[in-house]
Design a protein that fits this description.
The complex is a heterodimer of chains A (112) and B (154). Chain A has 112 residues and is mainly α. Chain A has 5 helices and 2 strands. Chain A has a single domain, classed as Arc Repressor Mutant, subunit A. Chain A has a two-stranded antiparallel ribbon. In chain A, helix 1 runs antiparallel to helix 4. The N and C termini of chain A lie far apart (52 Å). The C terminus of chain A is likely disordered. Chain B has one domain: START domain (Alpha-D-Glucose-1,6-Bisphosphate, Chain A, domain 4, 2-Layer Sandwich), CATH 3.30.530.20. Chain B is built from 3 helices and 8 strands. Chain B is globular and about 45 Å long. The chains are: A mainly alpha (112), B alpha+beta (154). At the A-B interface, helix 2 and helix 5 of A face strand 1, strand 2, helix 1, helix 2 and helix 3 of B.
């Protein structure tokens, strides 16, 4: 699986998206990540492994701790979410422009 | 220059702005008249809204059902909290995918902008996790449109 496929596949899981959202606020240890999600450490570690393989996150060495943080690709992926939502909304509003162009201004105030 | 902006604010807000050539009254009507809503609030190409209930009064119900015509669909329900014709709509909504998502509190303002309208949509989600999930859902629907285009359906 190439990195892009791995990234999209990793992002398909809601827990992993939430982990990325948490890491967007700053780095965190496995324990810190496990806590809000009410998941066991091994379960979180498995999600982290998938995210790491997708190169969405990486780790830093600090004594015995290995805090995880967003990788550059992770930040770009978050931006991508916004870009895609923007695209879906833009399509709607472009359609709305056409609808508005078809509304007769003399029917002002009339409903349905 | 793009007519639309989308930004996140704080932990729980998403703010969308869009300018329209039409005056606030027309843009407001296009958000409260089911016949008009069914023409534009469709998301990716190929989707339609066979059911559109929009009872535009405080406490009034909202129900939008979308279909891709191939057996796939989902719906949204909500309630109006406050309406000020033709300047402001406040409502809550949730998607059913099929489980309901946490409530999205939405304030939509329609301000005069020359002869047109500046619309500002302020969404408030319960927490950062929910907001991230909502943005991701937007991504998935956007991707769906891209795939549809790849298949030469539009």
């Amino acid at each position: 699986m190439n990195t892009l496929d791995a990234a999209f596949s990793a992002l398909a899981d809601p827990t992993r998206r939430a982990i990325l959202a948490r890491l967007a606020k700053g780095e965190a240890t496995v324990n810190e990540l496990a806590e809000p999600f009410e998941m066991t450490q091994p379960a979180i570690s498995q999600h982290l492994k998938v995210l790491e393989e997708a190169r969405l996150i990486d780790r830093r060495v600090e004594g015995t701790k290995r805090p995880r943080r967003l990788a550059k690709a992770g930040v770009e992926a978050m931006d991508q979410w916004l870009a895609m939502l923007r695209k879906a909304l833009e399509k709607n509003y472009d359609r709305l422009d056409e609808v508005l162009a078809g509304i007769d201004p003399h029917k002002k105030g009339e409903k349905r | 220059m793009s007519k639309m902006t989308l930004k996140i604010e704080g932990d729980t807000h998403v703010i969308v702005t869009r300018r329209f050539a039409a005056p606030p009254e027309a843009v407001y009507r296009a958000h409260t008249d089911p016949k008009l809503i069914q023409k534009w609030m469709l998301g990716p190409e190929g989707w339609t809204m066979p059911v559109c209930i929009n009872d535009a009064k405080p406490g009034g119900k909202i129900r939008y059902e979308w279909s891709n015509g191939k057996g796939r669909g989902f719906h949204l329900t909500g309630e109006f909290l406050d309406l000020e014709p033709y300047s402001r709509i406040v409502h809550v909504e949730r998607m059913h995918l099929p489980d309901p998502t946490p409530d999205n509190h939405v304030e939509t303002r329609f301000d005069e902008d020359g002869t047109g309208t500046l619309m500002t949509v302020r969404m408030t989600l319960p927490d950062a996790k929910t907001r991230a999930a909502m943005l991701a859902t937007g991504m998935e629907r956007g991707m769906e449109a891209s795939y549809a285009r790849l298949e030469g359906m539009i």
